[in-house]
Amino acid sequence: MPNDPPRIAREKQTIRAMVGIYCRGHHGTAGELCPECEEFLSYALGRLDHCPFGTIKPTCAKCRVHCYKPAMRAKVKQIMAYAGPRMMLRRPLLALRHWLDARGDAPELPGR
């Protein structure tokens, strides 16, 4: 969405980059994602669109609310394990921002 809060927009940019690195490495794609990775990315972006934390969103790994279905949660762990180390070479500023965002404790869910 064009009007995403900066934190959500950055998370979307990060997951797009990670899925791209993973798909290129595992499925040999160049530029476009394979259908499987496109489906996962669509799911992940949808989850970000409905994040209850909004502007105070923690990184997903630190979140107290796990909104991914178990199979998708396993998939995102697989993607991040592969793409995370490679982000420092391919997208160093984005990787640094993600690392900085991951520092500290996750906030409590708003309204609780």
Number of strands: 0
- Level of helix content? 55-70%
Q: What's the N-to-C terminus distance?
A: 27 Å
- Major sheet size, sense and barrel closure: none
* Category by helix and strand content: mainly alpha
Using the alpha-carbon principal axes, give the shape: globular
pLDDT < 50 stretches: none
Number of helices: 4
Rg over C-alpha atoms, rounded to the nearest angstrom: 14 Å
Our estimate of the beta-strand percent is under 5%
List the helices and strands in order: HHHH
Mean pLDDT: 87
Structural summary, described in words:
The protein is built from four helices and no strands. The two termini are 27 Å apart. With 112 residues, it is mainly alpha-helical. The mean pLDDT is 87.
